[in-house]
Amino acid sequence: MPFIPVNDPKDLRLAAYREVRERDLVGRQGRFVAEGEVVLRHLLGPKSRFEAESVLIAANRRAALDDVLSCAACPVYVAEQPVMDAVAGFAIHRGILAIGRMGEPTSAQAILADPETRDLVLAIVGVGNHDNMGGLFRAAAAFGVRAVVMDSTCCDPLYRKAIRVSVGASLITPFARLATGEDVAAVLGQYGYAPLALTPSATERLDEVRVTGPAAVIVGAEGPGLPEATMAKCRRIGIPMAGGFDSLNVATAAAITLHHLAVER
Question: Which residues make up the CATH 3.30.1330.30 domain(s) of the chain?
Fold first, then answer.
């Protein structure tokens, strides 16, 4: 696609980018906002699970992105920095935005069926903080997780801030959201994954855990943690810590656990 110069902040072709600050496109016309170079490279790269509808970049970023943008199958709009800032409604220091299309949601069956012995899955229950969601997806991608499964109460991993914090991991990691009332541990067990609940009320130390088949690490929201009904179906795993301290940020705890299991197998 050719590079398309734009000089007017009111250009109708840029409507999706207008006033993009925390006004997110998720849930509207099936779109989402991607921001930053690494995120854009994931969106346009071979592992992306989504299509880009368009890209908007500052003119001074074009040369550094020419390798990926020259192959983009969507319009690439190029604007001077003041024009881009006026469109977005705030200073876009990275100078890189894109609009992606969500497509049809992926089912749990599509990402969980027929697991291999070493497969790891991350399951998330009740996490409503976009920073934590992004951190969880980043950890999942870093340690080779096959897929992420979320319950119906989790926030959207395609929210702009969640994508940014994940450094684009939510664009390349398969994920599915369960229907209201579906129990995460039960669904994982149905497809043969050993459910491991990460909790301060653990009965097993992470450094002593061994799992011989497909496994799923299940994490809950900071504070309330996982429901007792979910943990009752799982092995309860905890990370050994110094005396008098028993908790970590949920994304940090998940990363430590996934790393241990990935190395162990």
Answer: 3-101
Q: Under CATH, which number does the domain 108-264 receive?
A: 3.40.1280.10
Residue 229 has φ and ψ, to the nearest 5°, of -60, -35
DSSP string for 116-131? -TT-EEEEEES---HH
φ and ψ at residue 24, rounded to 5 degrees: -95, 155
**Which pLDDT does position 26 carry in this prediction?**
57
CB 39 within 8 A of CB 167: yes
153-to-25, 53, 182, 184, 195 alpha-carbon distances in Å: 19, 28, 11, 12, 19
Answer whether 90's CB lies under 8 Å from 21's CB. Answer: yes
227-250 per-position pLDDT tens digit = 999 999 999 999 998 887 777 899
Distance CA 31, CA 38 (A): 19
The CATH fold assigned to 3-101 is 60s Ribosomal Protein L30; Chain: A; (3.30.1330)
> How far is the C-alpha of 225 from the C-alpha of 127, rounded, in Å?
9
- Residue 1: band (very low, low, confident or very high) from pLDDT cuts 50, 70, 90: low
Strand segments (E) across 75-118: 76-79, 96-101
- Cβ contact 125:225 at 8 Å: no
